[in-house]
Amino acid sequence: MAEVNVKEIKVDVEKIKMNALDTKIIVKNKAAFLDKKIPNYVSVLGVLGLLLLWQIVSKSGLVNEFTLPAPTTVLSTAWELITSGALWPEISASLYRIGMGYAVGCILGIVIGIVLGFSKLGEKIGIPIINILYPIPKIAILPLIMLWLGIGEISKITVISLAVFFPIVYNTYTGVSQTNRLLLNVAITFGATKFDLIKKVIFPSALPMIFAGMRISAGVSLLILVSAEMIAAQHGIGSFILKNADLLVISKVLVGVLVLCIIGGLFNFVLAKLESKFVHWKS
Fold first, then answer.
1. Judging by beta carbons within 10 Å of its beta carbon (0-12, 13-18, 19+), is residue 20 exposed, middle or buried?
2. Cα–Cα distance between 119 and 247 in angstroms, integer?
3. In the predicted structure, residue 12 carries a pLDDT above the cut 90
4. What's 139's DSSP letter?
């Protein structure tokens, strides 16, 4: 039988081990796109690109510039309205209405949503009523509200509050009802009262859903604001847009739309900042 050189076998085994250690196994992360970071300036470039396309289409003759004024024309008209002071009464009237209506709708929606989510009796009584009233177009009942409350500011604020109220109620109720039962049991074990449960467990847990409802309501409130001002208002962005549309002054109509875009953007910016402050643990 041939003699086996044990030393040579050991050397070969060591070489195989070293080669195995030197071999790099590359595993492709197929979920890397989920963590991809996009620079903030991309958003600005997107808006500028849209404005540039609008400018080109308007100035190239593809559409009649009377029906679609270029962004430069709209900005020039806006500057004239601002410097002359003609736009400020419209903006201030709209900001007052939407500010009051949004605040009242949010406060009532959050309070009632917590009650519906926390109380089984409140849920049994309140949710069917909410489900019945929610599908009603709020602008459709504006004439009825005006009949009850008059044609002043209260009726417009009320209809905006109603439009804001329902998304907030649903989101708050959902957030409260989905609170982790284990957290509630632990808090109760440590002697928490019902008020402590709401303040320290339920409300913080429901905050992400509440902010989601507030963002939805911000867009809805703008829609109802413009509709209400077009129906029954002498001043306001909605009334401003309607009057200039009747006169076929399209550049001023687009100025009104631009103001609404800015108000909506400010809404989202403020809500995002508040959410990052109060729901910082979500990330």
1. exposed
2. 54
3. no
4. G
Locus of tokens 């050189």: 5
pTM of the model: 0.81
**204-224: per-residue pLDDT in tens?**
888 999 999 999 999 899 999
Would you list the DSSP string of the chain? -PPP-HHHHHHHHHHHHHHHHH-------TTGGGG----THHHHHHHHHHHHHHHHHHHTTSS-TTTS--HHHHHHHHHHHHHHTSSHHHHHHHHHHHHHHHHHHHHHHHHHHHHHHH-HHHHHHHHHHHHHHTTS-GGGGHHHHHHHH-SSHHHHHHHHHHHHHHHHHHHHHHHHHTS-HHHHHHHHHTT--HHHHIIIIIHHHHHHHHHHHHHHHHHHHHHHHHHHHHHS-SSSHHHHHHHHHHTT-HHHHHHHHHHHHHHHHHHHHHHHHHHHHHSGGG-
Q: What's CA 66's distance to the chain center, in Å?
A: 33
What sign results for the dihedral spanned by CA atoms 27, 28, 31, 33? positive
